Amino acid sequence: MEPLLQAEHITICYNGKPVVKDVSFNVDAGEILGVVGESGSGKSTIIKAVMGLLGGGGMVTEGDIWYKGRNVVDMPSEELRKILGPEIGMVFQDCKAALCPIRTVGAQIYESISEHERVTKKQVYERAGEVMQKIGLTDPQRIMDSYPFELSGGMNQRVGICAAMMMKPALLLADEPTSALDVTVQAQVIREMKLMRETYGTAMILVTHNIGVVKAMADRVLVLQNGEMRDYGPTDCVLNHPENAYTKKLMDSVLHLRRNA
């Protein structure tokens, strides 16, 4: 079977300067790919390219990104918008910044769902409530009626995760989805995202600095440094038995606490 998503030797430039250079990887249906590396290594840039969200000056200058046999690099924006949400979901690193500050959370979630489905506001609120409770938001009605600035950073992050999960996309792109959450909520979110994979066969690209999250979730790992591939393979091999010098340094930098007797 062909991969759900396939990146072939992609180079991404901003204003002519390459920030991702000759990177290739596959994501199979139901697979979780972890993307790790230091800040500025190009992790977030790659998933923004999949979404067509590189912004002004950003462009895939070489290579192709195939989703279900269609090249998203050359896809017209109208066609790409039809698959963003129902087929490819996105959890942003700062979900609060991605939300409109002068509209309620419920209004924004309803708008995003109704763009692709015929649903009532009541149906959307009920669906959102079910997902929110699974990831630790116990008062979904209040949250749906709130503005983003009335919620904490962690709550806004879980709202973003909820909105991305509600349409059960085939591929979920998650940019540091647990970075604003405390460890207890991180565990809840990880469990729910893994359950989403098990229930709906959702594949994921997980960008994170948290090696523990990668170990808990990812089937394969892509290691980047300065926009270039340093390692790529099964999670156990890459993280526990690294052969690349940079990957070894990255793993050695992970903090391990010891308790003296």
Could you explain how this protein is built, in words?
The chain has 261 residues and is of the alpha/beta class. The chain has a single domain (5-252), classed as P-loop containing nucleotide triphosphate hydrolases (Rossmann fold, 3-Layer(aba) Sandwich), CATH 3.40.50. It contains 11 helices and 10 strands. The protein has a 6-stranded mixed β-sheet with strand order 6-7-8-3-9-10, with helices on both faces. A 4-stranded antiparallel β-sheet has the order 2-1-4-5, covered by helices on one side. α4 crosses α5 (121-134). The longest helix is centred in the last third of the chain and has 18 residues, at 183-200. The protein is globular and about 50 Å long. Belongs to the ABC transporter superfamily. It is found in: Cell membrane.
